[in-house]
Amino acid sequence: MDKCRLCPSCSTMLYGKRCNCGYTDIKEFITEDMYYRCYTRNANHPAYNSDFRDIGPYKDEITPEIIANTKDLLIKVNSLFTELEGESGKEIKIILTSGWRPQIYSKELGLSLGSNHCFGLAVDIADIQNLKYKLLEKHLEKVKSRTLALEHKSATRSWLHIQSRLPRSGNTIFYP
Prior knowledge:
Elements: E1 5-6, E2 13-14, H1 32-37, H2 64-88, E3 96-98, H3 103-109, E4 122-126, H4 131-138, H5 140-145, E5 149-151, E6 159-163, E7 173-174
Parallel strand pairs: 5-7
Antiparallel strand pairs: 1-2, 3-4, 4-6, 5-6
């Protein structure tokens, strides 16, 4: 049985996972800390073992706009996977492969400075067998209702790219 507590949205008593105000408990598949630190897998990099508020030489790049974008993106992505996991009754495992990417770091690597990753608007998740892509493709209306977009699987190798900025085409599944 679920514990009784106050709804963080409207402060009424919440007995289950959903409140009458529309609030739903969301499982944190991806935390802010994970998102901000996931631009490097290099264990010698200053950000590798740091708190996201102190990510080495790039901490000054995290603006209030990036923080707001990140919170919006993570609520949408985490709520999507929470809903799908609840419906299927099967645990969904998420391995983050790319979160926020500092523009300076992108420049050092020769990557796009206009990438949605640089603005807290995109996330990449491991998806070697395309299982998560197929799941989201099957539930495209849930993706669309959250104003999320997916890069077409042919444009990615072993990951699923999800972004909260719709592409110019307005398509939920798009080619970069």
